[in-house]
Each structure stands twice: as C-alpha cells, then as structure tokens.
Amino acid sequence: MKMLTRTLLPVLALGMSALAMATEADKKAIMANYAAYDKALNARKISPVKAMLASDCTFKPKNGQPIKAADALQAMEAQFKMAKSISSKTTVKSLKITGNTATAVTVNVGTVVAVNPNTKKDVKFAIRTESVNNWVKQNGKWLMKLVEQKAMSVTQDGKPMGR
After folding, report:
1. SS3 content of the chain, % helix, strand, coil (to 5)
2. What are the pLDDT digits (tens) for 17-66?
3. Burial (0-12, 13-18, 19+ Cβ within 10 Å), 67
4. Mean pLDDT (the chain, rounded)
5. Which residues contact 122 (CB under 8 A, 6 or more apart)?
6. Which of 95, 90, 85 is nearest to 30 (CA)?
7. Which pTM was predicted?
8. Which residues make Cβ contacts (< 8 Å) with residue 153, sequence separation at least 6?
9. Residues 19, 20, 25, CA angle at the centre, nearest 5°?
10. Where are the alpha helices (DSSP H) in the chain?
C-alpha cells in the first residue's frame, strides 16, 4: 500500500494536473477565437472569421435550412459592404471541452448601421443571438464546426422586426 501511495498517486496527480493545464489552454484558445471574431466583425474583415472555421462548418438558423460556411461568409461579406458600422460582442455562457471537441453556449449582441437606399438616412439594426457552437481541434488549432442558432431578436431603429 505504501508503494501505491508513494509512486502511483503522485503520477496520477501529475497526469490530472497536465490534463487541467491542457483544458485551460484549450479554453483560452477558444475564448481568443471569440475575441478575434468580434474584432473581425467590428473591423468588417472576413478573412479572420474564415480562418477560424472548419472546412465543413455549417450554420443552422433557428427557422431555416443549414447554410454552408462559404455561403454564410459570402452573405457576411455583402453585409460588411453595405454597413457603415458594425459592433459585435460575444459572451460565452458555458464552455465544455472533451478531448478534441468543445461545445459553447453563447450570446452575441451587435449593432449594424447602414444607409436606407430609399431615404438616404441611417438605419440602426440591433441583433441579439443565442447559439450553441461546436468546435473541433485540428492540427493543434480550434476551429468552429457548427453554429446552431437557438434564438434571435432584431430591431430596426428600436422597433422589433419579425423573425
């Protein structure tokens, strides 16, 4: 029994410590991706967003057909061109990492200011989205594999829009 407590338990503790450090590093990497995502949206730059998506990433709107990453990025780029300004802030409500996969529950709050082509006046959209995001670690890098929208609300100049 003494042999067990002197040799095996310290080795197990070391292994558990290494696992905790790996999980903490993984958590920091995923959180850094969310910060980079917000920064990219705020700057209206598509390439940093594209860099954090798995090649088979899918976006699933709450009430719609799944969208491939390439199509979602194309739509996002078109919105960037129309917008005068964008503000995005993502809050991670929970994050569970299991090996090379992770699941995050997030809330994103953003605003988009664009010019109404008919009135030539600014229009402000406020968007709040709740999502479940699946991540996969590939070649040492965390990539988003699935964005599943659970809830979304949009206002235009403070008035609710139907969705």
Report:
1. 35, 45, 15
2. 434 445 899 999 999 999 999 999 999 999 999 999 999 999 999 888 99
3. middle
4. 87
5. 84, 113, 114, 115, 116
6. 95
7. 0.82
8. 127, 128, 160, 163
9. 100
10. 2-3, 9-43, 47-51, 69-82
Rounded to whole angstroms, the Cα distance separating 65 from 110 reads: 23
Residue in the structure block whose two tokens are 């980079």 = 36
- Six token digits for residue 99: 């090996």
pLDDT of residue 22: 55
Supply the pLDDT for residue 6: 52
Would you say residue 13 has pLDDT above 80? no
Upper half-sphere CA count for residue 103 (Cβ side, 13 Å): 4
